[in-house]
């Protein structure tokens, strides 16, 4: 077990796999105590990530399953993380779902609501309760959210996802303007296609594969979760105090803004 310098406490949602897991590993490497969230059915995977972090970095972990689309659970997740890790300096609202890959005319309102429930409502509640906790504790914290290249540029056959990821940019800008006076920065990352279970599930399902492939520009290159973790590491750092309200593209030239 290696004892690291402790930078504070970070909470990552959707941390059992994919981008969230890579972010949690990276923040632990950087020296944060890390709280790991995902849905309750992912508890075993979360425990495995926690064990890996404890063995590699010994920086301290806290496993907190919760559904980010449920306000009481988000509130509880933030307060118990803050109690367990003695504060909350960074939240990465990473949990998200892809939703249906279909033309607009075929999307049901249930499908629309389901995506927004997690991607925008869930992220809003993470921003809200983390901001309250950081303000109460006087922490000049970092709030970081998961947008997407699909939050910068419309994508055919992915209307609910695109709308949710565009919404995250607006929410991130607004929160940045409101929270700047407390020294809290609010930013988001906008990945291109990254090799994670989310993308693998879409590509192995014959009902979503053709529409998903049609939605990618020919210049698209697939990245790795660590490519996103490194930008999050920077946004979480003290040096990034002068960056706020941004949604930063990480996509190897697929889209420029
Ligand atoms: P992933 O592999 O599906 O991992 C996301 C994790 O979040 C899963 O374990 C998922 O559980 C969990 N989750 C879903 N709903 C939740 C909820 N209500 N509360 C708590 N956890 C929940 O996804 P990823 O590819 O790592 O993506 C992470 C984030 O980056 C997402 O917001 C995604 O939209 C965004 N993003 C990804 C890509 C990409 O190419 N991978 C590109 C752009 C943006 P289940 O597996 O049970 O759903």
TrEMBL record:
<dbReference type="GO" id="GO:0006633">
    <property type="term" value="P:fatty acid biosynthetic process"/>
</dbReference>
<keyword id="KW-0521">NADP</keyword>
<dbReference type="InterPro" id="IPR020904">
    <property type="entry name" value="Sc_DH/Rdtase_CS"/>
</dbReference>
<dbReference type="InterPro" id="IPR002347">
    <property type="entry name" value="SDR_fam"/>
</dbReference>
<dbReference type="GO" id="GO:0016616">
    <property type="term" value="F:oxidoreductase activity, acting on the CH-OH group of donors, NAD or NADP as acceptor"/>
</dbReference>
<dbReference type="InterPro" id="IPR036291">
    <property type="entry name" value="NAD(P)-bd_dom_sf"/>
</dbReference>
<comment type="similarity">
    <text>Belongs to the short-chain dehydrogenases/reductases (SDR) family.</text>
</comment>
<protein>
    <recommendedName>
        <fullName>Diacetyl reductase ((S)-acetoin forming)</fullName>
    </recommendedName>
</protein>
<dbReference type="GO" id="GO:0048038">
    <property type="term" value="F:quinone binding"/>
</dbReference>
<dbReference type="Pfam" id="PF13561">
    <property type="entry name" value="adh_short_C2"/>
</dbReference>
